[in-house]
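Q: I have two molecules that I believe assemble together. Could you output structure tokens for the complex as a whole instead of separate predictions?
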Amino acid sequence: MIRQLVASYVLLVVAALLGLTVPVTITLTNRVYADVETLARREAQTAALLLAADDAPSRQNLARLSAAYQIQTPAKMDALSAGRAAINPMPLPAAVDDEAFTAALAGQEYLRWEQAPALGADGMVIAVPATAADGTVLGAVRISYPLAPIRERLWQIWGLGAVLAGVVLIVAAVVGALLARRLTRPLRQLNDMASRLRDGDLTARAEETGPPETRTLASTLNTATETIDTLIGSQRAFIGDASHQLRTPLTALRLSLDNIADGVDDPYLREDVEHATAEVVRMSRLVNGLLALARMEATVSSPEPVRIVDVVADRFDAWRAAAEGSGVRLDHDIADQKLCALASPGHLEQVLDNVLCNALEVSPDRGTVTVRTHRDAAKAVIEVIDQGPGLPAADRHRAFDRFWRGPGLTGRSGSGLGLAIVKQLVSDDGGTVTLDAADTGGLCVRIVLRLA
Amino acid sequence: MRVLLVEDDEPVAESLTRGLGRYGFEVEWVRTGAEALRAGPSDLVLVDLGLPDMDGLDVCRELRARGDVPIIVISARADETDRVVGLEIGADDYVSKPFGVREVVARIRAVMRRARPALAQPEPTQSSKLSIDRRARRVYVAGAEMALTPKEYDLLTFLAEAPGAVFTREQIMEAVWDTNWFGPTKTLDVHVGALRRKLGDSVAVETVRGVGFRLTLS
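A: Yes, here they are, computed for all two components at once.
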């Protein structure tokens, strides 16, 4: 935002500079040319008057004038008699037959910017006739003014303009940056507050200062945070209550069943009691799972950079024995050793545990479970691929629902909450998890997390 | 052996009292923390954390300040912080609800064995096939020493505290791995598998479908 504000300031200044400077400089340029023309014409006319006087002292004066003119200016002044002969004591000018002399001897003033023959360079050529009182043309005076010094002056003018414009732009950018920082300060404060909120600090509040717009925003943000705080507080309270209220009767039931089992000798009755115990245990697992899920929802996560290679290696160590027991190979396909993802402490471990458990469950004998980690479009991707039977497309979408059970072995004995918990954990950390069909025919669990 | 049970829920307390009685424990039941602190001396205290008058953790702290009576915390709050705090302020073990009678018995025996070796009940697993030397952490099967990993040893000794009793996966994870983490318990299956291979036919670790495991001495 600061950059955009500064850019807009600078753009405005550029527009203003262009609008003012360019016309002024163009006018100035035209003035320079016009001045040269005016001055040269006046000198030429003065010289023509001297030439028209047609006497020796005047010619002496003309020669002196010409010499002085050539010393004072870079131009060259030539005079020619009506018979295209040199004017004594001046030398015969170069190119006596050029258009300028021809026009002037014909009584016309000649002015053109062209290749000046007297200079052998580009310049202004002006020629005026020296006319006697009766109108006869006695000769002509030609002034050739070179272009190079004029160009040099123009370059100086444009250069000065450019330097000034540059200085003004730099000043504008600095002032703009300072102004922009001042303007965005309330926004930065709001951002600080929002970051604290993201990191799980529900006591974070924004200072309600600055311009009315940001003040309103800060106030709205504070109210929203208040609401979140209350909601999370009540959910936490509910989890605590539910945990106690559900587990206590389950405990009583379990203890009673144990007492019955200890008191009977009838093997059939014992078996019935064991069935009942199994149901109580199942119920307990469901309660545990639901409460774990609810607890995750009530926790504001604070993701930290986690090196994926380390986590995967750690989980492989834990699962290697189990995998070897069922003859399954665990394989880690690493594209980037240093790949780090943002995940809350323990989350990625729990996610991998759930996913690896499922993968091992469905893997055939001598199969391979591959974990592939790589970076993709500024995200960290972890894919867990098994060689099991896979899931049909319709089931792949529903598999993250609570209480959904797969068709396989895991489905029958599981709580139906494993993948729901995985999804909750991953989305807590700002990631996504999807199921795809793997090339191997099995299932590919694709976990995408933010890069650290 | 006298056990003080501090538990406000009557059905739980009654069933536990009756169940523990069957295993030879003399249970004194109180409902509140205040009563618990007034009660006479006992050999072990079971404290529920959710008491009506005060926090169970404060009861633990007070009891610990008075003496070194073994304390087992029982709680419906399966929160990891409660567990850590409980163990830090001096509780000897932590059992999450729901639990069965024999699971509590096993935990009591294990704690007593650690805390009061003199008072502990005689070794229940001195069968002809299996004997456990807990001081040296050694296991003998039919007279021959069996090499077990530390976790395998912990698992076997925990199951052996109450042979024939079914332990849920959760209770085993909590007692042996010291975690009440909800999730797959495949690690447990792996260790059970290893134990089965090593112990052979003499001692069976049976799977009880839908519940957990039990140790049977044939």
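A: One point stands out. The two ends of chain B are 29 Å apart (CA to CA).
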